[in-house]
Design brief:
heterodimer; A: 112 residues; mainly beta; 11 strands; B: 117 residues
Chain lengths: 112, 117
């Protein structure tokens, strides 16, 4: 079963705007990861944030983690049409090896 | 680096036949691989964890006799959908973690679209 919930389920913005997606989870984690999926394709890893980290940046991506609220957010700045995809958060627990539990995902559409 | 190749990318088969899907790590060793199923506009549902040299660990509700997993080498896991039925039609995706890098992200294949007629 999926332990993560993401909101919004769908987000439509204009090119150049920022997109923020949120993820909540239920159990203690080792790390939280964000993945991107283009339609009909596999997932591509974007960023990993460890449980003792609060914020991480990678290019136009900014991820925050609040373990007290069991939540994370992914911010994509200056969005582009090519950012259109589904975005999933996934949690890794200390006792589960490399096994991930995925959230429900956010479908992002960036309009040119 | 860290490429996972999944084959075939799509397959159409008749009801009652079996279909094998391969998942290969091309440039790294993967003791552990994962198989997922994804329905349209939904998240990934973990079906099983494939362990090299031992039996796969199936998630609750997944029929192990229907979804046979073989992980015979450190670079290859296969998922065989036996006696396929139309309700097995779905998008199947595999992923692998790099043995030599603990707590590293997963690397995914591009998925296999299975259609059972």
């Amino acid at each position: 079963s999926q332990q993560g919930e993401e909101d919004p389920q769908a987000l439509s913005i204009q090119e150049g705007e920022n997109a923020t997606m949120n993820c909540s989870y239920k159990t203690s984690i080792n790390n939280l990861q964000w993945y991107r999926q283009n339609s009909g394709r596999g997932l591509v890893h974007l960023i990993l944030i460890r449980s003792n980290e609060r914020e991480k940046h990678s290019g136009r991506l900014r991820v925050t983690l609040d373990t007290s609220k069991k939540s994370s957010s992914l911010l994509i700045t200056a969005s582009r049409a090519a950012d259109t995809a589904s975005y999933f958060c996934a949690t890794n627990q200390w006792t589960s090896g490399s096994r991930l539990t995925f959230g429900e995902g956010t479908q992002l559409t960036v309009n040119p | 680096g860290a490429v996972v190749s999944q084959h075939p990318s799509w397959v159409i088969c008749k009801s009652g036949t079996s279909v094998k899907i391969e998942c290969r790590s091309l440039d790294f060793q993967a003791t552990t691989m994962f198989w997922y199923r994804q329905f349209p506009k939904q998240s990934l549902m973990l079906m099983a964890t494939s362990n090299e040299g031992s039996k796969a660990t199936y998630e609750q509700g997944v029929e192990k006799d229907k979804f046979l997993i073989n992980h015979a080498s450190l670079t290859l896991s296969t998922l065989t959908v036996t006696s396929a039925h139309p309700e097995d039609s779905s998008f199947y995706i595999c992923s692998a973690s790099i043995d030599s890098v603990p707590n590293s992200p997963l690397h995914f294949g591009n998925g296999t679209r299975l259609t059972v007629t």
